[in-house]
Amino acid sequence: MALVCAMTLAVPHPDSVPMRARSGKVYKEAVMAQRAQQAASNWQPNTTVNWFQQPISHADPSLGTFAQRWFMDLSAYSGNNYAMLYINGEGPASESPDGFMRMYAQNISAAIFTLEHRFYGESMPAQLTNRSALQYLTVENVLEDLDTFRAFVQSTVLKKDNVSWFIVGGSYSGALSAWMKVKYPTTYKAAWSSSGVVNARFDYYAFDGHIMSVLPHVCAKAIRSVFDQVSAAYDDPTQRAAMMAKFGTPSYFTKADMAWMLADGSAMAVQYGSKNYLCDNIVPLSTTDPFTQYSTIIKALWGETFTSSCYYSTACLSNASYSSQWAAAGYSWVYQCCTQLAYWQTGYPGSLRLQAITTDYYIDQCRQSFGATTFPDTYAFNTKWGGATPNAENVIALQGSDDPWQTAGVQQSLGPLYPEVLAQCNQCGHCGDLMNPLESDPPSLVSQREQIVAYMNEWLGVSSSVSSQSKKMR
User: Fold this and answer.
1) 3-state class of 83 per DSSP?
2) Reduced to 3 states, what is the DSSP secondary structure of residue 4?
3) Which backbone phi and psi does 31 adopt, to 5 degrees?
4) What are the E-state strand segments in 40-185?
């Protein structure tokens, strides 16, 4: 179901921006917009930290437990039977959630809970340098974490036998919300899957395919020209050091590492609704110093440290002497991709990124970092969880038309109980529906949120009087 508009500004939800990219304007402007909304509504997130003892392995309780951080917001809770579990994904949790999902939950007077993901933030079963402990970082353990926590707060906080739970997540967490409905079909009444990447992609060339389809040709041509010139400079011993210095990239980055980082700088601009900024600043391309021009753009978007992030470097990820950089770089997420999910964005003839980025490159990086047998069996994973067609009901899949990640998600409705709603506009990107509504939102995004409310109300059995109140959310 496509909703068409012509406006061009959709702000991403801050939680959807990866840790390595949170020092730039995209994340900072999203946080500022959210904080302004909080001030205007006289509401603040709850920063009180709570801890829950979670089994290290749900399959082997003898291994003991670890302390998992969680937050709640009962500021609008009326004591009714509604409760929201917001799935915090591949990053730290530091407060109760905010966004359109919080506004919806409060409009129906629901209790709100969120649990920090294992191996992120302060919820650490072991240190990241303990490679053997990483085996417990699996989707299966995460799903059981969530439901074990749900049962805990239902019995100790809500103290009710019958609760109408709904789960919300974006991106990887959006996939988790759908997989929760696969695993626990009756425990949760509804799932809100924002840009949910439910289809683990091994050779994910479709990612660049989508980027190329939404970038203006002149913009894509300029970006690819930068990459080609970087490739040539890297291969020339007399030019390599000077080129890398202009990007602020460490000398231990390989050519493929460099290509991966530079491609991600552009890809995320498309993903997070900054395509216009990228193209306006790369066209026309400098004939004298394209490296500084491109470096300035991606550092403005993602921060000064983006071009040196350990996330992109095989040497950094595989050497414990760099472990102080691992948490901020998303080391745990790299492990999850290496062992289960892949999502390996690869180059091909005519793609935006260089063809040096191959599945072999990622496999080598994984095996150097986590062991010689490391490999993500995405076929088995998708067979288990459904791939692009999860076997679940009362799930709404939300997509943004510019977002390249939609090609790893549900791209068409799977039936009346698993609708897909696409916000279609220039710069409609990743997880836009989760963000607090703003005056600048495209009509397509506004309509998408209205459909979310309608489906959630239906599946949760929200009364008509409460439903009429929810229509006032803007």
Assistant:
1) strand
2) strand
3) -65, -45
4) 50-55, 65-73, 82-87, 111-115, 164-170
Distance CA 383, CA 387 (A): 7
Q: What is the DSSP string of 167-213?
A: EEEETHHHHHHHHHHHHSTTTEEEEEEET---S--SB-THHHHHHHH
Average pLDDT over residues 323-332: 96
pLDDT average, residue stretch 174-183? 98
Q: Are 311 and 20 in contact (CB under 8 A)?
A: yes
With tokens 């492990």, the residue in question is 335
Write down the pLDDT at residue 473. Answer: 59
pLDDT tens, residue by residue, 212-264 = 999 999 999 999 999 999 999 999 999 999 999 999 999 999 999 999 999 99
Q: Which amino acid is at 442?
A: P
Phi, psi of 343 (to 5 degrees): 55, 40
User: How far apart (Å, rounded) are the C-alpha atoms in residues 328 and 121?
Assistant: 9
Rounded Cα distance between 3 and 74, Å, is 34
Amino acid at 437: P
Q: Which helix (H) or strand (E) holds 424?
A: strand 420-424
Q: Which two tokens stand for residue 79?
A: 């004591």
CA distance 297 to 282: 8
* Contact of 374 with 366, CB cutoff 8 Å: yes
- 146-169 pLDDT, tens per residue? 999 999 999 999 999 999 999 999
